[in-house]
């Protein structure tokens, strides 16, 4: 595949990939976003209302 190179170990096993960001940058951003989302799926969440209230409190504290 053009713009994609695999890095292999001494046994020929693929260990990493190099991606030409000029060619695949937009796709990489989507892939990266999906990775970040997956890595955070078990983090605690708060509601939109709680986030707005917290932001408002921080604005008051910081002046």
Task: Tell me what you see in this structure.
With 63 residues, the protein is of the alpha+beta class. It has one domain. Helices cover 54% and strands 17% of the residues. The protein has 2 helices and 2 strands; from the N terminus they run E-E-H-H. Strands 1-2 form a two-stranded antiparallel sheet. Strand 1 (4-8) and strand 2 (14-19) form a beta hairpin. The N and C termini lie far apart (54 Å). The mean pLDDT is 94.
Strand adjacency order, main sheet: 1-2
What is the number of helical segments per DSSP (H or I, 4+ residues)? 2
Calculate the mean pLDDT score and round it. Answer: 94
Amino- and carboxy-terminal Cα gap: 54 Å
What percent strand?
Answer: 15-25%
Domain count: 1
Question: What oligomeric state do the depicted chains represent?
Answer: single chain
Give me the count of strands: 2
Shape by Cα distribution: elongated
Task: Assign a percent range to the helix content.
Answer: 40-55%
Low-confidence spans: pLDDT under 50, at least 5 residues? none
Given the helix and strand composition, which structural class is it? alpha+beta
**Mind telling me the C-alpha Rg?**
20 Å
Give the SSE string: EEHH
Largest sheet: 2 strands, antiparallel
Topology readout:
Elements: E1 4-8, E2 14-19, H1 21-39, H2 48-62
Quick take:
The chain is α+β, with helices and mostly antiparallel strands and 63 residues long. It has two helices and two strands, in the order ββαα. The protein is 54% helix and 17% strand.
């Amino acid at each position: 595949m053009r713009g994609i190179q695999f890095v292999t170990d001494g046994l020929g096993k693929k260990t990493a990939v190099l991606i030409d960001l000029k060619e695949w940058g937009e796709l990489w951003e989507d892939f990266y976003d999906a990775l970040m989302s997956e890595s955070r799926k078990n983090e605690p969440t708060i509601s939109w209302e709680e986030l707005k209230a917290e932001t408002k409190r921080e604005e008051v504290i910081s002046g």
